[in-house]
Amino acid sequence: MATYLVLWPTGNLVQQAMDGTREEWDLQEAGRYGLYGAFITAPLLHTWLKVLTRLIPGSAFTQALAKGYVDQLVFAPVNISQFFVGMALLEGRPPEEALHECQQKLLPTWMISLSIWPILQTLNFNLVPEKNRVMAISCGSFLWLVFLSYMHHTRAQDLPQGLVSRQVHYDYKHGSSESSCVRLGPIDFSTSDTQQ
């Protein structure tokens, strides 16, 4: 909890420094990240890692790999959802708005998570003793928090196109082509006019 009390506001401040739209530091925002990281994320992560270790005992590479993927397929969507909803509520926004943000940003955030965290968690479960795993993962968590802070503070319509919409469409006459015809918004998947 003490580690996350330092890492989370620091990660948010790094994101604020990288954000060209900000004119001054928002220390209250950084404080909210510290409280949330220390009192919500750290205990939740500690408990989940204990549960996961009991579900899949052992630290051989195959067991560590299994834990890494179970972590991302089971825990990550819950963790990302509670981050978006929890941070919005801490900012004083209404629950409907918090849920709407979660609907817009959960899937693209989770897709990025799936490309990073299985590798880091496999190494964590394979090489790090159980008592040090939350501490070890906090190093990767710092960079991840900078990304989460960016996702949270960027409106869905202002996110890079590759994060919010992507579809590979296979046309049997002309081969495959990538288009931006599926919008990963709040359960609103519209298709392009080329799709049958």
Automatic annotation (TrEMBL):
<keyword id="KW-0472">Membrane</keyword>
<dbReference type="Pfam" id="PF04117">
    <property type="entry name" value="Mpv17_PMP22"/>
</dbReference>
<protein>
    <recommendedName>
        <fullName>Mpv17-like protein</fullName>
    </recommendedName>
</protein>
<comment type="similarity">
    <text>Belongs to the peroxisomal membrane protein PXMP2/4 family.</text>
</comment>
<dbReference type="GO" id="GO:0016020">
    <property type="term" value="C:membrane"/>
</dbReference>
<dbReference type="GO" id="GO:0005739">
    <property type="term" value="C:mitochondrion"/>
</dbReference>
<dbReference type="InterPro" id="IPR007248">
    <property type="entry name" value="Mpv17_PMP22"/>
</dbReference>
<keyword id="KW-0812">Transmembrane</keyword>
<keyword id="KW-1133">Transmembrane helix</keyword>
